[in-house]
């Protein structure tokens, strides 16, 4: 719930932390534990109140218990609750045990006075691409019918539209069109937010704001056919859900990127 006197939820999306069990390990030249902590430092420096963190998957890179406990330990420095969904790299069984305490757990639906936030599971076991099952799609319809007077924000790991990188778009949400067609019939839905693509996007589709968010570690360069890393800094997204259904949002990044990746990398 929100503190008394405030109706606009302030949410922070952190995504694709790709943590390892070992604090020494790097992904393509970036120590993901250190970059995660640097992003948390940046969040701590902001004056904004935080009502919840939304962690949109690929929390772990190696599916070790200690990678998930590193996430839990890091996020525990904030009092706000953190809700997570799995990404293609995650093991939901380990998440269910390691990321489960009063302020950190899986969530499907968060209800605020003027908004509801839905968190969908787009993971397909052993595959990099995503898919939303019939039950996930039905859940969206039911949730909107349950609270027809509230605006609705939907989060998932995978991108429902191609972002313009051919190598990456093969791994998108396979039924993205079906998903967006459904949302377009639900006027309560104001925005869709995802991770996975390690880059920023902000576009409108049939009145719905489509937003993607940088990773807290490596970034992918937009509009590249082949795997290409970007030099822009790790970051996160602030989302403020306004009473009138508008989404006030910004991406905040580390200054003077201290986490330069190995630009010669061809993949992972
Ligand atoms: N060179 C590559 N070509 C295609 N896919 C890749 C390449 N390198 C990595 N990937 C996959 O693409 C995924 C995109 O983001 P993820 O972090 O989910 O994990 C990545 C890998 O599973
Ligand atoms: Fe991913």
Automatic annotation (TrEMBL):
GO molecular function, one term: metal ion binding
Domain of life from the UniProt record: Bacteria
Keywords assigned by UniProt, alphabetized: cAMP, Hydrolase, Iron, Metal-binding, Nucleotide-binding
UniProt keyword Phosphoprotein, yes or no: no
Domain Calcineurin-like phosphoesterase: 11-199
Protein residues bound to Fe cation 2: 58, 88, 157, 196
Cofactor section: Fe(2+)
E.C. number: 3.1.4.53
Family assignment from sequence similarity: Belongs to the cyclic nucleotide phosphodiesterase class-III family.
HAMAP family hit by this protein: cAMP_phosphodiest_CpdA (MF_00905)
Name of the protein in question: 3',5'-cyclic adenosine monophosphate phosphodiesterase CpdA
Species for this entry: Corallincola holothuriorum
Protein encoded by which gene: cpdA
């Amino acid at each position: 719930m929100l503190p008394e006197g405030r109706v606009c939820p302030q949410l922070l999306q952190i995504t694709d932390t790709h943590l390892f069990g070992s604090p020494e390990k790097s992904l393509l030249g970036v120590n993901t534990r250190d970059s995660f902590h640097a992003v948390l430092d940046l969040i701590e420096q902001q004056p904004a109140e935080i009502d919840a963190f939304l962690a949109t998957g690929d929390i772990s890179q190696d599916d070790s218990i200690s990678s998930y406990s590193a996430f839990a330990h890091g996020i525990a420095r904030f009092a706000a609750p953190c809700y997570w969904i799995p990404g293609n790299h995650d093991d939901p069984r380990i998440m269910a045990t390691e990321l489960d305490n009063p302020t950190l757990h899986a969530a499907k639906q968060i209800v605020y006075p003027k908004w509801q936030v839905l968190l969908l599971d787009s993971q397909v076991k052993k595959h990099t691409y995503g898919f939303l099952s019939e039950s996930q799609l039905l859940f969206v319809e039911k949730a909107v019918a349950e609270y027809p007077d509230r605006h609705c924000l939907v989060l998932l790991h995978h991108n429902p539209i191609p972002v313009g990188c051919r190598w990456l778009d093969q791994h998108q949400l396979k039924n993205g069109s079906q998903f967006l067609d459904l949302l377009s019939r639900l006027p309560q839905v104001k925005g869709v937010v995802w991770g996975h693509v390690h880059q920023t996007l902000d576009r409108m589709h049939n009145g719905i704001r489509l937003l993607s968010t940088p990773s807290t570690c490596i970034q992918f360069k937009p509009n590249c056919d082949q795997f290409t890393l970007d030099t822009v800094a790790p970051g996160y997204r602030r989302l403020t859900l306004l009473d009138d259904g508008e989404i006030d949002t910004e991406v905040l990044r580390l200054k003077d990127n201290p986490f330069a990746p190995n630009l010669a990398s061809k993949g992972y």
